[in-house]
């Protein structure tokens, strides 16, 4: 009888501990990351037709923004993300660049999905401003426009955030 009571209590406790009201029901929510790397540089890599950015040791600060779209439970292989990279001189405490000056920052957008290879897109339209905070983080505001490829329309992104060191 004691073993039945123990099993009943264990079953009740395990049922209570299961959270059936999970907010996202196992679906990955939308997320954003704002980070930067000291003493680094952007290196473009082309490996067998796949372009991507490596952040290597260098003399600059490299900033990286990542947007990951919410997962759609009813769609298989729907993963989608966007990455933005740029670098500034390590000695700067603030910056302001616009349009073609963005090319000096080696600013690139890239998207990632369950699809064919997607190229890096250099950014040459828009503005980027940033100010180093007293705690070492960077408050950055970006308003950029670009096309993913020759067939797509111009898209715009506004990115504002506090970038933290990694």
Can you offer a commentary on this structure?
- The chain has 166 residues and is mainly β.
- The chain has one domain (27-165).
- It is built from one helix and ten strands.
- It has one helix spanning 2-17; strands spanning 31-47, 50-57, 60-68, 80-89, 94-98, 108-113, 121-122, 126-132, 138-146, 155-165.
- Strands 1, 2, 3, 4, 5, 6, 7, 8, 9 and 10 form a ten-stranded mixed β-sheet that branches.
- A hairpin with a 2-residue loop joins strand 1 (31-47) and strand 2 (50-57).
- The protein is globular and about 45 Å long.
- The N and C termini lie far apart (58 Å).
Number of helices: 1
For the biggest sheet, the summary is: 10 strands, mixed
Shape: globular
Q: What do the pLDDT scores average to?
A: 84
Structural class: mainly beta
Number of domains: 1
Can you give the helix content as a percent range? under 10%
User: Low-confidence spans: pLDDT under 50, at least 5 residues?
Assistant: 1-21
Number of strands: 10
Descriptors:
ten-stranded mixed sheet, disordered N terminus, 166 residues, mainly beta, 10 strands
Produce a short descriptive summary.
This protein has 166 residues and is mainly β. The chain contains 1 helix and 10 strands.
Describe the protein's topology.
Layout: H1 2-17, E1 31-47, E2 50-57, E3 60-68, E4 80-89, E5 94-98, E6 108-113, E7 121-122, E8 126-132, E9 138-146, E10 155-165
Parallel strand pairs: 1-10
Antiparallel strand pairs: 1-2, 1-3, 3-4, 4-6, 5-8, 6-7, 8-9, 9-10
């Amino acid at each position: 009888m004691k073993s039945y009571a123990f099993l009943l209590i264990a079953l009740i406790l395990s049922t209570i501990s299961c959270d059936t009201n999970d907010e996202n029901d196992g679906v990955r929510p939308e997320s954003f990351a704002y980070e930067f790397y000291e003493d680094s540089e952007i290196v473009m890599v082309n490996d067998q037709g796949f372009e991507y950015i490596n952040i290597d040791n260098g003399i600059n600060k490299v900033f990286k923004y990542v947007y990951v779209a919410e997962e759609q439970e009813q769609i298989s292989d729907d993963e989608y993300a966007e990455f933005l990279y740029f670098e500034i001189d390590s000695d700067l405490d603030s910056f302001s660049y616009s349009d073609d000056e963005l090319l000096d920052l080696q600013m690139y957008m890239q998207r990632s999905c369950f699809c064919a290879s997607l190229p890096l897109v250099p950014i040459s339209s828009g503005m980027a401003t940033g100010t180093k905070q007293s705690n070492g983080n960077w408050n950055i505001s970006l308003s950029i426009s670009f096309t993913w490829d020759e067939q797509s329309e111009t898209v715009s992104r506004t990115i504002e955030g506090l970038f933290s060191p990694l």
